[in-house]
């Protein structure tokens, strides 16, 4: 486990329990007490947690999320997807991140990437997002430039939707867009529970040179309410739970699938 993966794992422990002790990190991550303390100090310096004697507590900015963000049966798979997506993003990129648990996992991985924390007189990453929880999570990064789209907040997902969001997105050009979905099928494509979020996701994907759907394997073959009208998707990042038959079906439909390796 490298440093970025350790820091992300510590944040995951905090998200689940609200606090963590050095001894917990030593036991669960298999590191020395000195390494655990250094990692906690590093995260505290980045304002992602509050240090306590012998451990740390979670900061409110990153973890005051709707319940679906804190109770996720597929958190490990989404972390794997996030690592695979992060590896596609060069330093200095302009990316779009919609809301959702997998996009939030990607934001968390990006927030601990060592190369993006290096001193720079230009943004090491520019993030355009319609998710206020992702904006709050990343705004503490001094090297990141964060643009929030504006709009009306959906209290179930913390995503901004509506005509104001559409107007802002029409004025940006993205290198990459990463779109979380509620269901995905080779024929129907990506689908979203909320029609407003589906509209924003479609526009964000169309504003990018390259766009990727992010979906853990439990979403494959599932169908939600709203399609991403106006967008024909070509790239999917998922986890190793995808079956050979599902891979073949996507390939037959001309969809490139990146399977994130299991840790």
By CATH, the topology of the largest domain is: Rossmann fold
What is the H/E string?
Answer: HEHHEEHHHEHEHEEEHEEEHEEEHE
* Mean of residue pLDDT values: 90
Low-confidence runs of at least 5 consecutive residues: 60-65
What is the CATH architecture term of the largest domain? Answer: 3-Layer(aba) Sandwich
The general outline is globular
Overall SS class? alpha/beta
Give the tally of structural domains.
2
Number of strands: 15
Largest sheet: 7 strands, parallel
Assign a percent range to the helix content: 25-40%
CATH class value of the largest domain = Alpha Beta
- Report the span from N to C terminus: 9 Å
* Rg calc: 18 Å
Question: Helix segment count?
Answer: 11
How would you describe what is shown here?
- With 263 residues, this protein is α/β, with parallel strands linked by helices.
- It folds into two domains: 3-63, Arc Repressor Mutant, subunit A; 69-260, Rossmann fold.
- Helix content is 38%, strand content 24%.
- It has helices spanning 3-17, 22-29, 33-45, 60-63, 67-70, 75-86, 101-110, 132-138, 163-169, 195-206, 244-252, and strands spanning 19-21, 49-52, 55-58, 94-97, 125-129, 144-148, 152-154, 159-161, 174-180, 183-185, 189-192, 208-214, 226-227, 235-239, 256-260.
- It has a seven-stranded parallel beta sheet, sandwiched between helices. A three-stranded antiparallel beta sheet has the order 1-3-2.
- Helix 7 links the parallel strand 4 and strand 5 (125-129).
- The longest helix has 15 residues, at 3-17.
- The protein is globular, with a radius of gyration of 18 Å.
- The chain starts with a helix and ends with a strand.
- Residues 60-65 have low confidence and may be disordered.
